[in-house]
Amino acid sequence: MRLGSAIHAMFLVSVLVACSTKPVAVHSPKPPVSAPSPTALPETPSPEANTSAAQPGSEAPKSESKELKPHDHEATAPAIYEASSADYRRDAARHIYRRLPARIYKGKLPPMLKAVVVVDIHIEPSGQVGHIDWVRVPKHAPEVKQEIEQAILQSAPFPAPSNFRRVRYTDTWLLHKSGRFQLDTLTEGQY
């Protein structure tokens, strides 16, 4: 009887652990025309890649991420991200604060906010925004999604990631009812 209870308990623990870990979003790259070597930078695509992407009716299925002006070579390049984006997250938050000083809420935020939004931002080697993944958008204020997207695009180009690689970083936007915001990375806290 004890063996059955122990197995049942181990099963429950494994299910709970699996449910509590954050799922890893895997963005499968589009099939490359020719496989690039792992150390080589992507070169310009072949003419076949441009014509296949331009054919009508060959649209890719839409996902929840927002694709923003991809370059031709990025469609065939595999996704490469830096191992740690914590430093880049801080640099990008400072960059947004410098680019949008009138939109930043000064001082401590009040206890009640209009919205809290979590966003994954993919930055290309050039510093341009690759795409935006919306991790958490409030149902009571769906308009903030467009406001944040506009703020991100107005802040571009971002600082170029180190080693000429793409970077994905996550930040939490804390929005006040006045339309001003703080980023969790640089927040002054709440009362």
Describe this entry's structure for a reader.
By secondary structure, the chain is an alpha+beta fold. The chain has a domain at 65-191. Helices cover 31% and strands 16% of the residues. The chain is built from 5 helices and 5 strands, in the order H-H-E-H-H-E-E-H-E-E. It has a 5-stranded antiparallel sheet. The longest helix is centred in the N-terminal third of the chain and has 19 residues, at 2-20. The protein is globular, with a radius of gyration of 21 Å. It starts with a helix and ends in an 8-residue tail after the last strand. Residues 17-63 and 68-83 have low confidence and may be disordered.
Topology (SSEs and partners):
Layout: H1 2-20, H2 47-54, E1 66-67, H3 72-76, H4 86-99, E2 115-123, E3 129-136, H5 143-155, E4 167-175, E5 181-183
Antiparallel strand pairs: 1-3, 2-3, 2-4, 4-5
In short:
The protein has 191 residues and is an alpha+beta fold. It is 31% helix and 16% strand. It has a domain at 65-191.
Give the helix proportion (percent range).
Answer: 25-40%
> Could you tell me the radius of gyration in angstroms?
21 Å
Report how far apart the termini are: 53 Å
Shape label: globular
